[in-house]
Amino acid sequence: MTEQLDAARQALHAVRDSLRALIDDRETPAAVREALQTEYSDLQTLWRKLDDQELHVAVFGRVSVGKSSLLNALLARDVFATGPLHGVTQRAETDQWTRLGDSPVRVFDTPGIDEIDGQARERLAAQVARRADLVIFVCDADLTQLERSALAQLAEAHRPLLLVLNKADRYSQAEQARLLEQLRAHARGLVQPEHVLLAAADPRPERIVRVGIDGQDVESTRPREPDIAAVAQQVSAILAREGLLLSALNAGLYASEVSDTVATRIAEIRASAAQRVIRGYCLGKGLAVAVNPVPLTDLAAAAALDVTLVFHLSRIYGLPITRHEAGRLVGVISLQLAALMGAVWAVHAASSLLKTLSAGLSVTVTALAQGSVAWYATYLIGQVATRYFVQGRSWGPGGPKRAVHDVLNLVDRESILAEARQALAERLRGRSR
Known about the structure:
Mean pLDDT: 81
Largest sheet: 6 strands, mixed
Distance between the termini: 85 Å
Oligomer: single chain
């Protein structure tokens, strides 16, 4: 048992340190941190939980099934609000229950799953569930469809589940046995049979009838003690046996989810920035080619802009390369593009030559045509280079030819050329005015 406990503590400390590293990672852009404020707040809470070796128990269930009463009975004091009104618990509340070794155990009360504004409260319940090491699902009869659905969702969180039939004092022993059987059947695959329990957190007063001095029956009541011993024993046993390991596992799973979300947001931000940069260079190259009357000069300018574009993209993706390396990358991409669509490059070169031999309207028409083709060429180079950097400066198993082929299949050539012609025409008209 001692060796198992030491191993659990080591796992917990390892996850705690990885959480700290994720929280403090300076490579995460400020925009991502701002967009994921809730997730980073949860990570901070989880880190403090692990650092204090806290164990968390959360209760779920419909309104008025006695969630708050069950926790009050566990605590042996009235901490959580209870009452006849629908939805007394309006937000998640917590208090410390006991200590197991060095670990304080905290319990969390949550709003009913069928309350008004259910979506917001379900999100709140889900947030507490992510941090819970054990979940108690409370019902007061056989499960409704809503309860079955909620129980299935909780089971997906991969933490121990207790299903507690509260208000058991309202049923006869035969009815209790029948309800336990039904609950175990409906929770099969979600809750272990031995984790389906009876409780009477706030039992009805005992009715006492005695004969008065006048021979008449006199009726009175006296309060009954809560009957939650089986629940308390099961919770303590699970947490003592595997609480620290569960805490480390749950925190690790959530940290992994947040890490994936952070990576996705970073990828989205980089992709958005890359597309803005590519279109900026497309416009710059298209204009440079369209307004420059010297064929060899505009081709040289085009190549220089493509190299600078790739150089810029490498920095967006945190994989900086030199301009010489960017030039080589443009060369590789251009060779593959020329092999796959040489006609486009032929038009590009021919229209450059035509521009010096034409005047008036044909110059404008040719400038738009050549500028649009230059735009399109830079757009393709940018998309292929982006794929290269997204894959960690790798072409993937198919090599550069396959990467270029895939990009060509994804790009709608006509829409890109139409966009280019429109943007260049507007800019050229602006220059003429």
